[in-house]
Amino acid sequence: xxxxxxxxxxxxxxxxxxxxxxxxxxxxxxxxxxxxxxxxxxxxxxxxxxxxxxxxxxxxxxxxxxxxxxxxxxxxxxxxxxxxxxxxxxxxxxxxxxxxxxxxxxxxxxxxxxxxxxxxxxxxxxxxxxxxxxxxxxxxxxxxxxxxxx
Length: 150
Ligand SMILES: Cc1cc2nc3c(=O)[nH]c(=O)nc-3n(C[C@H](O)[C@H](O)[C@H](O)COP(=O)(O)O)c2cc1C
What we know:
Strand content: 25-35%
Shape: globular
Mean pLDDT: 98
CATH class: Alpha Beta
CATH topology: Rossmann fold
Number of domains: 1
Number of strands: 7
CATH architecture: 3-Layer(aba) Sandwich
Largest sheet: 7 strands, mixed
Radius of gyration: 14 Å
CATH superfamily: Flavodoxin domain
Number of helices: 5
Order of helices and strands: EHEHEEHEHEEH
Low-confidence stretches: none
Bound molecules: flavin mononucleotide
């Protein structure tokens, strides 16, 4: 059984809706052999990361950067996971109102430092979420989960 770890900071109504849609995709009954573990970014730690086979990261862009909770998560896990998680796949979505540039740059720098492999390009959702946005994160969740058992 492969394990997908979802690490999220989704405390607003918009991000919560996106989070639920992501989980729906990741838990698609058609995807066999993957268990989905969900951790709030402020509660996730190195053991969660070491025990997983792939990652889904999600949260807002605040003040031109990744939400502090996600930054805190990465600060906690970086050194304990640096060697053992090289090459593991990840997907991510960020929610923003108008400019996600700094958040995307931070996510790219941190995951490159960890040498994680993008299973899909990070997705940015502006405003909404619309039905299309929800479908897009649902598909992202399903694609990252399915990728673990290809
Ligand atoms: C303190 C704060 C800073 C924010 N900074 C940015 C920002 O730099 N760029 C951006 O596009 N959105 C920014 N936002 C909007 C958030 O990304 C947005 O509120 C979050 O994704 C939740 O979405 P919602 O408020 O529509 O529920 C900020 C929000 C807050 C509360």
